């Protein structure tokens, strides 16, 4: 666990970057630090590995004050993914990834062998190993940045806007891969972003910062969407937080009505709704494993305002209209 | 001056190319290269650490910038004469004068190379847990090499051209051909000296270009 105890950072020149921050980042979980530009996210992150020294207060890792640790040794034990990758341009991709293991005393050959495996893990094929960073796309560079931070298998990872320099499609893909990786690895991660969607998607917990380096709210993504502590947080998480909050609710408990009026094939799979020019597309189906957000989306897009649920065999086994969904949500609220 | 007495006869006369003979062109080239290499070596030993220190720490940058300007404006021949009156004849005053010539470009380019680095990469190196000297030797120096080598090559060119002054104070080197040629009105000898110095300068620069290709990481050469 990483603990901020009443931490203040005032830079020379007088601007307060972090103002009395007390925060816990639980072990094995990803905590997203999110907030508008200049609110002290990067500064907070860099105080964990002593790249920045707090003006006052303490930062503890598993109860031990980082100020008492040897700087270089501390940093070798913490993976660090830098805003805009920060790869070494004079080293090959493979040697970039091997950096920390070599610092820790591994032979170059051992470190390279391990690096090769890691590259595959982050989705880069073997022929990237011999390239130089200038020969990679932004997304590929970010993957290398993540691999480099993971190379020594550190229990803690600091990630400063690791997915910012790529287009939305690639970012989406990196997110998916990253979540899968984190599921395996279970690192304690502090991830900085100014994108609330990214924070909500990746974070087990989200810490929202406001201007002046103050913590506005910390909680699970669901708590944040359901109960923002004040107008700033409400505004920051966005007007559509009601709809977005539904992504955390499973459709398993949602009552359905019997299938009626839907055209089915021999196996009971939906063909569409009856229409003048043949069956009209249902717009997709959901299962018990989907979120209520998926159900809401289907109900909105359906030509008849009804979402279709299917079982594991693909056969339709229930219907939900948007009235049903609204009633269900209203009932849940009271 | 009689123009038809200036020709390539001296340069092309095989007798002047005899290996090992005291006054032959190969012997003079060897001595000339000797002064050049010594001056570059001493200059590098002096200027490189200072430039790296200033670039790494950011302390004393005024020194790197002003030493460059001051050094460039010192006339080497004048300095040499002054040193000879102080120290007497010999190799020492020549080496000092030539070293003063090469220090400014090496110092300035080392500093410039270090300053031109992407600070985020240096920051990343520290963030990975490199110690200060590891950051210097594994990241800053290799990344500064292209600019640094540029300064070193221009220092080498200058010193090859200027090492002719050694002959002015009684030493060897290709300057002998110029000075002795002038003394006895043998302008073909002067021409031979000038041509050999020019060709030597080109060859030295070419070999340094090869060295640069070899020691600078392909990752820093742009993409192709
Ligand atoms: N080295 C520094 N010296 C002085 N002031 C600094 C320094 N680094 C950051 N600051 C100031 O501290 C404040 C917080 O900066 P920080 O980089 O932590 O913000 P951030 O939340 O990461 O912003 P962004 O989303 O733009 O990266 C800003 O007002 C910034 O100008
Ligand atoms: Mg930042």
UniProtKB/TrEMBL annotation, chain A:
GO molecular function, one term: ATP binding
Keywords: ATP-binding, Nucleotide-binding, Transport
Top-level taxon of the source organism: Bacteria
Gene3D superfamilies: P-loop containing nucleotide triphosphate hydrolases (3.40.50.300)
Entry keyword ATP-binding: yes
Domain ABC transporter span(s) in chain numbering: 2-237
Leader sequence residues: none
UniProt xrefs under PANTHER family: OSMOPROTECTANT IMPORT ATP-BINDING PROTEIN OSMV
Similarity field: Belongs to the ABC transporter superfamily.
Name used for this protein in its record: ATP-binding cassette domain-containing protein
Organism: Actinoplanes flavus
Automatic annotation (TrEMBL), chain B:
InterPro entries cross-referenced by the UniProt entry: ABC_transp_perm/SBD, MetI-like, MetI-like_sf
Chief location category: membrane
Leader sequence segment: none
Pfam families: BPD_transp_1
Superkingdom of this protein's organism: Bacteria
Subcellular location(s) per record: Cell membrane; Membrane
Residues annotated as domain ABC transmembrane type-1: 29-208
Membrane topology: Multi-pass membrane protein
TM stretches of this protein: 33-55, 76-107, 155-179, 191-215
Assigned keywords, A-Z: Membrane, Transmembrane, Transmembrane helix, Transport
SUPFAM superfamilies: MetI-like (SSF161098)
PROSITE patterns hit by this protein: ABC_TM1
Similarity comment: Belongs to the binding-protein-dependent transport system permease family.
Listed name of the protein: ABC transporter permease subunit
Naturally occurring in which organism (per UniProt): Actinoplanes flavus
């Amino acid at each position: 666990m990483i603990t901020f105890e009443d931490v203040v950072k005032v830079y020379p020149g007088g601007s307060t970057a972090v103002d009395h921050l007390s925060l816990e980042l639980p072990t094995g979980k990803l905590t997203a630090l999110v907030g508008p530009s200049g609110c002290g996210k990067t500064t907070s992150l860099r105080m964990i590995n002593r790249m920045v020294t707090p003006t006052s207060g303490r930062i503890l890792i598993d109860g031990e004050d980082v100020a008492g640790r040897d700087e270089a040794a501390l940093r070798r034990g913490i993976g660090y993914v830098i805003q805009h990758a920060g790869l070494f341009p004079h080293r090959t991709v493979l040697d970039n990834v091997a950096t920390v293991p070599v610092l820790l005393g591994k032979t170059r050959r051992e470190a390279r062998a391990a690096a090769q495996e890691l590259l595959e893990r982050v989705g880069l094929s073997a022929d990237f190993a011999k390239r130089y960073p200038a020969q990679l796309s932004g997304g590929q560079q970010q993957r290398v940045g993540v691999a480099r931070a993971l190379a020594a298998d550190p229990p803690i990872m600091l990630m400063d806007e690791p997915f910012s320099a790529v287009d939305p499609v690639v970012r989406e893909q990196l997110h998916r891969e990253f979540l899968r990786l984190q599921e395996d690895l279970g690192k304690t991660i502090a991830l900085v972003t100014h994108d609330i969607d990214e924070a909500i998607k990746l974070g087990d917990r989200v810490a929202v910062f406001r201007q002046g380096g103050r913590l506005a709210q910390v909680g699970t993504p669901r708590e944040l969407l359901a109960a923002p502590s004040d107008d700033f947080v409400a505004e920051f998480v966005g007007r559509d937080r009601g709809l977005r909050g539904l992504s955390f609710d499973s459709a398993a408990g949602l009552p359905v009505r019997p299938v009626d009026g839907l055209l089915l094939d021999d196996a009971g799979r939906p063909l569409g709704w009856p229409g003048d020019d043949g069956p009209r597309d249902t717009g997709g189906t959901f299962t018990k494993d989907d979120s209520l957000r998926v159900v809401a989306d289907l109900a909105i897009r359906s030509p008849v305002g009804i979402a279709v649920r299917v079982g594991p065999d693909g056969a339709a086994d229930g219907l939900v209209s948007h009235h049903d969904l609204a009633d269900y949500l209203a009932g849940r609220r009271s | 001056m009689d123009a038809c007495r200036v020709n390539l006869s001296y340069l092309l006369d095989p007798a002047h190319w005899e290996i090992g003979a005291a006054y032959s062109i190969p012997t003079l080239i060897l001595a000339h290269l000797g002064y050049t290499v010594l001056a570059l070596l001493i200059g590098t030993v002096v200027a490189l650490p200072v430039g790296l220190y200033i670039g790494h720490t950011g302390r004393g940058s005024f020194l790197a910038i002003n030493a460059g300007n001051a050094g460039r404006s010192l006339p080497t021949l004048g300095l040499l004469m002054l040193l000879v009156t102080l120290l007497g004849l010999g190799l020492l005053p020549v080496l000092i004068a030539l070293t003063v010539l090469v220090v400014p470009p090496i110092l300035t380019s080392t500093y410039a190379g270090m300053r031109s680095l992407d600070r985020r990469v240096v920051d990343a190196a520290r963030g990975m847990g490199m110690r200060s000297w590891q950051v210097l030797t594994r990241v800053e120096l290799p990344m500064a090499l292209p600019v640094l080598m540029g300064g070193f090559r221009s220092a080498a060119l200058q010193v090859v051209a200027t090492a002719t002054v050694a002959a002015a104070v009684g030493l060897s080197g290709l300057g002998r051909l110029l000075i002795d040629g002038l003394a006895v009105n043998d302008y073909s000898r002067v021409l031979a000296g000038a041509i050999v110095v020019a060709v030597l300068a080109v060859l030295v620069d070419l070999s340094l270009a090869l060295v640069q290709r070899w020691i600078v990481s392909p990752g820093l050469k742009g993409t192709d």
